[in-house]
Structure formats: structure tokens, C-alpha cells
Amino acid sequence: MPTIGVSIAVPEPWAQQLQRYREELGDQTARRIPTHITLIPPLEVAPADLEVVTAQLRRVAEAHPPFRIHLRGTGTFRPTSPVVFVAVVEGISGCERLAAGLRQGPLAVDLTFPYHPHVTIAHDLDDEALDRAFTEQADFECAFDCDHFWLYHHSAERGWEPQARFDLRG
Question: Which domain range does residue 37 map to?
């Protein structure tokens, strides 16, 4: 079954900057994961259900207005999870409303952890690399308007690939 994900892509030049940094830390998965804020985590979907999923994404996008996202500083989920991230300091409620709207019907998923919008910059690395990311990116900051999100498909060979863009129109 295909694996999908739904995310807000961080725009350039910041996406490439953060992805390069993640690669430099030694995160082997970084090249295959676009810089993003997750809305729906990886989810297996039967091919026959993809049309219903796409319709759900379209309905939610049409009901939600664009909003501002401001990323600043770092945070971590340690010791619960070996993750360091860039924090969303503006646009949290916009991300939460959008994610909650998406996680219904065919996209109803049980989350392992409470939803917390963020941009991962280090994952499953040793403590030294996680500490380094937390410190070195503490001054990172950018802001952008979120007026769309993406449906991604996962390929074992190429990683996460954007499949369809959904514009926020609410």
C-alpha cells in the first residue's frame, strides 16, 4: 500500500538551508525528506482510497484561510524522542486547526504524541549531534505566509515526493 503524508513545505531559501544543515549533522534521511511542518504523519492508504483522500484534502483546504508562520529558535522532544526542531512561534493555531480538520474521515489517525507543529532539524542522532543542532540553530528565524499544503507520496528509492498542492481558500 502506498504511504502518504501531508505537510506545509518551508519555502526557499530556508528549506534548503535547513536541509543542508540536517545533512551536515549526519542525518542520513535528510536528502529524502523535504523541509516541512507535518500535518498528517506517514499513513498507509489503499490505492482505491486515494481519490477519497484527495477529496478530503481539497475540502479542508477550501475551508481554511491562509495564515502567517514564523519560525524562531530551537526546541527538543528529548528525552521522549531524539528530535531537535526549529520552533513555530507564530501560526501554531493555524497549523493545529488545519491538522485537526485533516485528521477526519479517511485521514483519521491516532497520533503517537500530541500534535506539536515544528520543523525537524535533527532526528535519531547521537546526543552530541542533537546538542549541537539545538545550540547552533538557536538563532534561526524566518517567516512566511502559509497559503497551501502538499500531499506527499513516499518512494523507497527517492523518499518523500510532492504529488498535489492544495491552496487554502477559506
Answer: 3-167
